[in-house]
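new request in #modeling-help
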Amino acid sequence: MSETAARRRRALMRFWRDYRAQRAGLYGAAILAVFVLLALVTPLVTDPSGLDVTKATGPKMAPPSAQFPLGTDESGRSILLMILWGSRVSLLIGFLAALLSMVIGTVTGITAGHFRGWSSAVLMRITDWFLVLPSLVLALVLAAILGGGTSTIILAIGVTSWAATARLIRAQTLAVEARPYVERSRVLGAGHWHVMTRHVLPNVAPLVLANTTLTVAGAIVTESTLAFLGADAGQASWGSMLRGSYDWGAVTSGAWWYVLPPGLCIVAVVLAFTFCGRALEAVLNPRLRGVA
Amino acid sequence: MTLLEARDLHVEFASRGRRARAVDGVDLTVGEGEIVALVGESGCGKTTLARTLLGLERPASGTVLYGGAPLAYSARALKAYRREVQLVPQDPTGSLNPRHTVYEAVAEGPRIHGLRDERERVASALSRAGLRPPERFFPVYPHELSGGQRQRVVIAGALALDPEVLVADEPVASLDASVRGEILALLLRLRAELGLSALVVTHDLGLAWNIADRVAVMYLGRIVESGPVEQVLSAPSHPYTQALLSVLPESPAPIVLSGEPPDPTRIPGGCRFHPRCHVLAAGKAAEAGVDGLCRSQPLEVLPSSAALQAACHYARARQPRL
């Protein structure tokens, strides 16, 4: 199968060449790369003991200074240190929860759209059930039953947020399956797997990517909401920092250094994801090429 | 030698609680190296018949035979059948995945069937379909091609599997007139060079005249007249065929059919064409003494014979050999 491997490699090189032409996508990827890199090197260059309220050395709610570039919180911890360590938790939960949600949603959606009849009906009733359940309450209950921890929060967010994606992907799958080229492919002898992976998946991929963007953002926000309600991962995250700033009245006391950094970080990561998603869409859809 | 055959084929759909008999008893054969045209107006069941012959639709009763053996509907048997009988679809633009290059579109069949020498196969299929030099078209996307070139790519995709029969569903309906001739010439050349048989579904009698050896005229799920193309189209016996021919531009007096358009959920009793039949309406059937038969006596399914035949009481009263 060396010919297949060579074809894949050529396709990958072509993809990268096309992606490079997308300026916004490059910016998005660069922003994401910076955040991921910072999250990765943080444990190598900083000391997590500064996150412990009992070991915090700084003054309370101090504005930015040379010693604390982004000021301190109500316990005298460095905001910069919390942002750096919080990025690890927020990004991990955001990425993995979105990934879990997209995988469940895409598999369910494509399966329900491709196989008609009772299997599709059963899958869609399950989806409806998850859709009408108050997902935040369900996530809280799941987090409470499974016990605290990062993986619990990921599971709780992932399992409760895929239903809307599944419906969307199913609708798109139905639209793609009605195209004549799917029938042509069947006449050429294609089985279910071929149709689903060669025709349906590439056609729903832009939608999946666009949705992942929103889901990552949603997952980061859900994580902070869960933290706000007491089901946190037990570590500092951007979400729990926003919660802390709210609890301690950072806005009314003018402590902008406590509110803006976590908020801007969330915005930057979500924006970077949107840029990447758009660029990928433009590359994967030949009709959009040269337009964006 | 008969390659592809439909034997007493019935295909039904559920339509708002009623049964639509889209194909209502059809016997049809396509011989080796033969081109058969299936003509009829929209909604007469010709596309459904073509899809059933391709195994995309399962008959309610009756059989599709290939090479004398009935078609099996297991996934494995259908996949093997796909190497023998291929489709040329109506809309080449919609039939090509916009994300796949010409190479990928033509290589799809060989890849599905795990055939070796993919590159040579694709190149030879493209050049047989008239896209030369084939290498120039490999990296091209469908939206960069003209309609005629797209149809050639679709035909090349079918040829890459070395089929014996092509089922072409309105192969040139979406192409402009100058390209039509080229695609038809291509089909004729494929027959001459590769011995391909074809069933060409069309509503265009001129096309049937140009390309086919035999023609079968379909009305409301059944073949009402069939025979060698010169005989059927130069001297049509069935009033429906006469009406179809009379509206061609060069025809002196067009016959405009009256009555309701055909509805496959309510097939009339007697001759299925009698509510719209101009021969019956003009009283000529009564002169021949068959008007009672027209209204009450259903006609049998025409056998799949090469000779001229028509399912019409009036035509039979005048020409007993039919």
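bot summary: Chain A touches chain B through 22 residues (CB under 8 Å).
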